[in-house]
What does this fold into?
Amino acid sequence: MTPVTSTERERVRADLVRARSARSAREGLIKGILVLAALLSIATTTAIVFTLLQQTLSFFGTVSPWDYFTGTKWTPLLAGDQQSFGVLPLLWGTFYLTGIGLLVAIPCGLLAAIYLSEFAKPRVRKAVKPILELLAGMPTIIFGYFALTFVTPTILRGLLGIPVKQFNGLSAGLVLGILVIPTIASVSEDAMRSVPSSLREGAYGLGAGRLQVALRVVFPAALSGIVAALILGASRAVGETVIILIAGGQEPSMTLNPTQSFQSMASFIAATARGDIPQNTLKYETIFVVGFTLFCVTLLLNGVSAKVVGRFRQVYE
It folds into this structure.
C-alpha cells in the first residue's frame, strides 16, 4: 500500500475546503432566496391589509359601525332613503351557505379519507386521490354552471320535486359542499396516514377489527389534522365567490328557507367591483369594508384552527 504524502494530504484538504465553501455559498444563496420570499409575502399581506383598512376607516367616517354590524338591510347601491348598510344579511348568507356545504362535505370527505387511509388497496388509492385533487383544482365557474343548469332544474325540481327559484341557496350550498370535499378528504387522509403503524398493530393484536381500528384508534389519533382539514374546508367555503355569484342569486336575505336567493360577502364583492362605480364614493368603499370583514372572518377561523389543532396535538404527542 503506497503511503500518502503530505502534498497529497494538503491537496485533499484543499479540495474539501473548496467543496465546503461552494456548498456553503449555495446554501447561503438558497437561504437568502427563502428569506426574500418570506419578506415578500409579509409585505404583500401588509399592503393588502393597509389598503383595506384605509378604505374601511373612510367608510366608517360616514356610516356608523353600529349600523353596519347590526343592520338587517343591505342596499348600498340604491340612493336616498332606500340606501342601507347593514351587513348582517351578507354575513348570514355567507355562513348559511357554508353550513349547507359543510353538511355535504364533512361526512363525504371524512368517509372518503377513512376509506383511502384504512381500506383502499394501494392501487386504488393511487388512482382515487389524484382524481380528488384534480377535482379541487377545477375552475369554480364550472361548479357554478353545474349548480345552475343541472342541480337546480334536474335534481332539486325534477328528481326531488322541491319548488326552488332558479337562483337559490340550496343548489349553491350543495355544490359548494362538493367543491370542499376534496380539501377535507385529502388533508384528513394525510393526517390519518401519518398515524404510526404501531398503534394499528397494537389494536389488531388486541383483537380489534379494521373498522374498530379506523374509528377508535386512527381517527382519534389524527384528530388534530382532521380538525384542521374541517376548518380549512370551512375557510374555503366562506371565501368562495363564483358558485354563489352564478347559482345563489344576488338578493341579500336572512331567511332560513334555502329555496330563496342569497348573497354572500365574496359574491357581493365580485358583483359590485365591475368598474362602473366611481372611486372615492361611499358605494366604492363598501367593496373594501366587506372585503375587510371577510378577511377578519377568515383570520378568526384560522386562529380557531391553530388553537384547536394545538390543543389536540398536545393530547396525542
Notes: The longest strand covers residues 74-75. The first helix runs from residue 6 to 60. The chain is about 75% helix and 0% strand.
